[in-house]
Amino acid sequence: MPPADILSSIDAFCVDAMGTCTDWRGTVPREIRARAPHLSDEDAHAFAEDTRIANGGDGPLSADVLHREILDALLASLRWSALGAQWDAQAREELVLVWHRLDAWPDASQGLRGMKAHKLLVTWRVTIPHPPPNANSERQARHADFPWDVVLSSELFGTYKPNEKVYRAAAHHLALPPAKIAMVAAHVFDLRAAARCGMRTVYVRRTPEAGDVKSKDDGGEFDVVVDDLDELAGLLEAK
Questions:
Q1: Which pTM was predicted?
Q2: How many domains does the chain have?
Q3: pLDDT tens readout for residues 195-218
């Protein structure tokens, strides 16, 4: 089925923000090196990968609390103990807050606006209980100019993607059958979980290795594959 026909059949996009709309792999290593100039690019990227929230895990539903727990555990490990000796509580808190102001991919804001003109635009946030309950998503949306219609809170689900509970609960709260929702992500694990729940899938290529990912029409596993969100918005215009 042509991508435009697939997209015409859905009512809402559930869009992954972290990595699909924001370039955390560019932002976080840069901020790490600004605080530890002696680190190589390779080590800065490795440290950034290790600080990410575990996929599908349970635990504190505050992104700040969870990122801080992960950061403290890493800095106590043998590999990163030298950094642990360098970074005091204030430095660690500043690094945690980097996740509030990740740089957007250049196409993200315009592409999301193009998508929003045709479909409901939904994302998820991980709750930050103080100061305001939705601080993380609001700060990131303002920083990157993301025009969400709906922001679903992880407090509703008690876990994180790709736990299937998250996708099923999203469909429930949107009052839509899963087949009327398309999950948009740059992560294969995210889309596979959404597909198991009956959602349509849109893969966004954000890394060099993503060139190997194909749509179902080309023998792959996802309904639609695009190079960026502008291309996805263009497919909606074409229909």
A1: 0.87
A2: 2
A3: 999 999 999 999 877 778 999 999
